[in-house]
Predict the structure.
Amino acid sequence: MRPTDYRRWEKVNCCLTKLSSMLKSNRMLAKAELAVVSNFALDGAKIIFGSLVVGTFIPAASGKIAWLSFVIGIAMTSGFLIAAMKLSKIAEIK
């Protein structure tokens, strides 16, 4: 890995750490707001699953199954579900 790539990953990690600490902070979002954001992430997971994962198996003109779209859809759905679960747990604690 080149030194510039390492610096970029450090910046990304720093931003994610700051975002995480802001979400855990009591002053950023109230319980109701966290519930709304959690529901938004859950709805996003449903939309992604419906469009990318289920849509993969609808026959196309070429007749091929787009496996890359299927795998990316599963990964994105999982990410949105994990975000929704974490946000809902934070809302329950408050």
